[in-house]
Design a protein that fits this description.
Elements lengths: L1 H28 L56 E3 L6 H7 L4 H7 L13 E3 L7 H6 L62 E3 L9 E4 L5 E3 L4 E7 L7 E6 L4 E11 L6 E2 L4 E5 L8 E8 L2 E3 L9
Antiparallel strand pairs: 1-2, 3-4, 4-11, 5-10, 6-7, 6-9, 7-8, 8-10, 8-11, 11-12
Length: about 325
């Protein structure tokens, strides 16, 4: 009887033992204190004094090659920088000022440089300021011709020695010297030969100063007439040049132009022909602290003292 019970209980005891072992294994696998093995890599030890590069989470790794920013395109005309007849734009420049400083019509400068919008020029841009085909270097070096001055020169050859007898024979008489050209026939540059007149009747209150005043300041009352100083063509009439107010610029030839600033009223327009003594504006105080006419004469764009050319009062 006992042997039979023992034989029947043996399988169930074995099953209980197996179940216990399985439960123990499952419990060990589910325990939170157990971790899967992870390979840990320690950072390389930095050398003393070596810079430490911070690592930003999510940042892309730097490329192996150094990236070079694309070069900016060259500004128009940069290949002509420094050449005679060209001008490099500086901060504060406008096309009107560039033309005035170089003795040109601003419309011509715009056309020579294919500028569609005269209000847009870039610092560093190089502009042609001399007509195409003109030797700007030779024009700049041309001296100012003297107005009607005649240079006295002695006749060439020494006078003959007197004869011992006190008489001069036909054989010893000197040959007549060749007639020299009359002094009045000295050639004059027509570009310099202009008939100048004062642009206003008032007194000069500020003389020419190349470092401060580029012209003469002439006193007057608001509305006094402003007259063209010589025959020419109006190349600018407006208020687009800072410091000049209502301004008129007259070009007389390829050498000279005149500027009339601070006017109250402008009576001419661009491209209009004016004559010496013609009323072109009324005196005022635009962009100035008093009523006055600021008058400039520019030779090849450079201001000169108008008193050198205007007639003596």
């Amino acid at each position: 009887m006992n042997s039979s019970l023992s034989s029947r209980s043996t399988p169930s005891g074995l099953r209980w033992l197996l179940a216990t072992v399985v439960l123990a294994v499952l419990a060990g696998c589910a325990s939170p204190t157990q971790r899967a093995p992870v390979e840990e890599r320690k950072p390389a030890t930095a050398r003393p004094g070596a810079p430490v590069t911070p690592v930003v989470a999510g940042a892309a790794s730097a490329p192996s090659a150094v990236e070079v920013a694309p070069a900016k395109p060259a500004l128009p005309g940069s290949e002509n920088a420094g050449k005679p007849g060209y001008y490099t734009v500086k901060p504060g420049d406008t096309l009107i000022r560039v033309a005035l400083e170089n003795g040109q019509n601003w419309r011509d400068v715009a056309r020579w440089n294919n500028i569609d919008n005269p209000n847009i020029i870039e610092v560093g841009q190089v502009l042609r300021v001399a007509p195409p085909g003109v030797d700007a270097g030779a024009a700049t070096a041309r001296p100012v011709a003297s107005a009607g001055r005649v240079e006295a020169r002695p006749l060439e050859g020494k006078p003959p020695a007197p004869a011992a007898s006190g008489t001069v024979t036909a054989a010893s008489a000197p040959a007549p010297a060749p007639a020299s050209a009359p002094a009045a026939a000295v050639s004059r540059d027509p570009e310099e030969d202009l008939n100048w007149a004062w642009p206003a009747t008032g007194s000069v209150v500020t003389p020419f100063d190349d470092n401060k005043s580029k012209g003469l300041s002439i006193a007057g009352k608001a509305g006094d007439p402003v007259l063209a100083a010589a025959d020419g063509r109006v190349v600018y009439a407006g208020a687009g040049l800072r410091g000049y107010g209502n301004l008129i610029i007259v070009k007389h030839n390829t050498t000279y132009l005149t500027a009339y600033a601070h006017n109250q009223t402008l009576l001419v327009k661009e491209d209009q022909i004016v004559r010496r003594g013609q009323k072109i504006a009324e005196m005022g105080s635009s962009d100035a602290d008093r009523v006055q006419l600021h008058f400039e004469i520019r030779r090849l764009g450079k201001p000169i003292d108008p008193a050198r050319l205007l007639p003596v009062r």
